[in-house]
Amino acid sequence: MGIPSCQNLLFHDSLKSPVSDDTYYHGLELLQIIISFLAFPLKTRSLIDAASYREMDTWITEVRNEMGSSEEAYAGVIERVVELTEPSPNAQPSKEMYLLGESHILPLCWKNVNVERQGYTLIPRLVMGLKAFYFKPGFSRREAVILRRHMAKIPEGASVIVVAGEIDCRPYTGILAAVEKGKYRDIHQGVATTAFNFVEGLAAWMDGSLGLTRPGKVIIHPVRPPTKRSSLQERDLIQELNVTIDKMVRDREVPGLRFLDLLPTLSKDGFLLEQFHSGDEVHLNSEYVPLLQDSIERTFRQ
Question: Per 3-state DSSP, what percentage of the chain is helix, strand, and coil (rounded to 5)?
Answer without folding.
Answer: 50, 10, 35
